[in-house]
Design goal:
The chain is an all-alpha fold and 108 residues long. The protein contains three helices and no strands. Helix 1 packs antiparallel against helix 2 and helix 1 packs parallel to helix 3. The model has no long low-confidence stretch (mean pLDDT 90).
Length: 108
């Protein structure tokens, strides 16, 4: 049986994407980059490998890969939500500035 290299490719891509996200601390980005490079190396080796689908190692690796893919998807979604919330804060501040400009009197 062949390993699911398509899912592993998505994980590598997400790792590299997260390694370039300014929303994350530098240390975290460096970790994503290191993991992405290591996983890409493993992906290249896995492309031609064949496995016994009933082996415990194959099952554990496949399960871990799908769990990791899910976790990375959620992390990317959360980053998008954070970015959207920051955008909303910016928008709100702009509206409040405009509202203050038309206010009759502002107490300071």
């Amino acid at each position: 049986m062949l390993f699911d290299t398509q899912t592993l490719t998505r994980i590598v891509e997400r790792s590299f994407d997260l390694s370039m996200s300014g929303a994350l601390p530098q240390e975290t980005r460096a970790e994503y980059l290191a993991h992405g490079k290591r996983l890409r190396e493993l992906l290249m080796r896995l492309l031609g490998a064949r496995f016994d689908a009933d082996s415990a190692e194959f099952k554990r690796a496949t399960d871990a890969m799908h769990e990791t893919n899910h976790a990375l998807t959620e992390a990317a979604d959360d980053l998008n939500k954070i970015s959207q919330a920051v955008g909303r804060l910016t928008e709100l501040a702009g509206y409040l500035d405009k509202a203050l400009k038309v206010a009759g009197r502002v107490l300071t």
